[in-house]
Amino acid sequence: MLTFTSLWNLAAVPSCTTYPERCVSLPTLTGTVLMPVVALGTWRGSYKECIGNDYACVRAKAKASVMSWVDVKGDHVDTANNYRTQLEVGEALAQKGVKREDIFITTKCPGPLGLTATIQCAEDNLQMLGLYGVNTTGYLDLLLIHYPNVIKPECYGPSSDPDIQKECAGTGQFQDPGTAARQETWKAMELLQKLGRVKSIGFSNCTTTQFESCTCSPHRNCPPCHINTFVCALSPIADNSTHIAETLAVATVPIALHQVHALDRPSDHGPKWHEVTPN
Amino acid sequence: MQVEWNPLDHDEDMLALCTKHGIQLQAWSPLGGDHGDILSNPQVVAIAATHNTSTAQVVLKWSLQRGVAVVTGTDNPAHMASDLDLWGFTLTDQEMTELNNLKP
Predict the structure, then answer these.
(1) Test mutation, A75, A201, A259, chain B, max B CBs within 10 A
(2) Which tens digit of pLDDT belongs to each residue from B16-52?
(3) Which residues pair with A77 in a beta bridge?
(4) Residue A4 domain-assigned?
(5) CB of A249 within 8 A of CB of B18?
(6) Are A46 and A79 in contact (CB under 8 A)?
(7) Sheet (strand A23-27) strand order
(8) Is residue A5 very low, low, confident or very high in pLDDT (cuts 50, 70, 90)?
(9) Which of A151, A219, B32, B101 could be stapled to B38 by a disulfide with Cβ–Cβ 3.0 to 4.6 Å?
């Protein structure tokens, strides 16, 4: 039985102590985490100059943005393994001399990858964010399972191959990893939390149907039923098709779909991009 | 739980489910993405004028007052500063209702 090596009462960046109304409380297996409610995202859709799959551009913009965010006293940054901006987030924070305890970092693993791959994903995220220090792995403040389904092996990253482009369009890029993989993924997330690699965990881009299928299993401490007591047996891809289709349909129109500031902030319009890798 | 959430696309069932289970909802695309021109919507413009804020600040504050955290996306430092400057005003119940029911 794994013991909790990372018990704490409260984890809070300084702004959450000074301005409690600017943060929300996340109850977790190991303690309460306070999260600043305004985060800066670093997905490529935020950067209008970066057309298509120009990740060199995206990465440079992400780095500059995070540095600016620190300048205006932002203390929550959101990234993801498949935003491909984690290196730059880490570099920006390092160059700004931000102390680890002064910043809240949210990142994501692409889907329910299973036990080992989820642990590996968290490890890679920690490395890319530059969090390894002296005799420590560092930690993530919030790790999310990015999508309820996994990306097909051939659909990782942009491709110039028309057959792959066709296969990976829309929901074609995802495949159902099965219930066991989902449960193993959630076990990994809880393990990471118990090991202190992450302070809080969650998921994103689920539908309510999928969410409700993240049922509290009888052997868990439930109720109270909060996110950390879920066995996240997210429902299969069929139940997700509407949501994903909707998300990806948005991605095919010539405007950023995500975190866009419209009209009176025209400089924040996203690039005109037409492919469908997940955000 | 991080999902798309803004005045033109807010899944109330999802918020209710999160609230029921004590899960924090986080919004991506909090300013509306392609769902329409929220920031130039006359109702939003009017509310912003009342509070002497930008329309973006009104829309972000709407999420926060609904109990939903936000993830903004911009490389514009002025917009970043205003995205963090949400604490000097409060939307009224009537304004919240108006924003809840906003149509494109």
Answers:
(1) A259
(2) 888 877 788 999 999 987 666 899 999 999 999 999 9
(3) A40, A105
(4) no
(5) no
(6) no
(7) A10-11, A32-36, A23-27
(8) low
(9) B32
Q: Is the pLDDT of residue A174 over 70?
A: yes
Give the residue carrying structure tokens 């791959």: A117
Query: pTM score, two decimals?
Result: 0.83
CATH number at residue A192: 3.20.20
Domain that holds residue A199: 10-259
Q: Residue A213: what pLDDT?
A: 47
pLDDT at A242 over 70: no
B47: domain range? 2-100
Q: Could you please report the per-residue DSSP string of A30-81? A: SSEEEEESEEEE--GGG-TT--TT-HHHHHHHHHHHHHHHHHTT--EEE--G
Examine residue A86 and state whether it is found in any structural domain, yes or no: yes
Contact of B86 with chain A, judged by CB distance below 8 Å, is answered with yes
**Residues in chain B within 8 Å Cβ distance of A264:** 39-40, 54-56
Whether residue A87 lies inside any domain: the answer is yes
Number of domains in chain B: 1
Predicted ipTM > 0.90: yes
Pairing verdict, β B2-4 and B26-28: parallel
pLDDT score recorded for residue A163: 96
Q: CA-based Rg of chain A, rounded to a whole angstrom?
A: 19
Number of domains in chain A: 1
Give the position of tokens 């029911």: B101
- Is A115 inside a domain boundary? yes
**Confidence class of residue A205 from pLDDT cuts 50, 70 and 90?**
confident
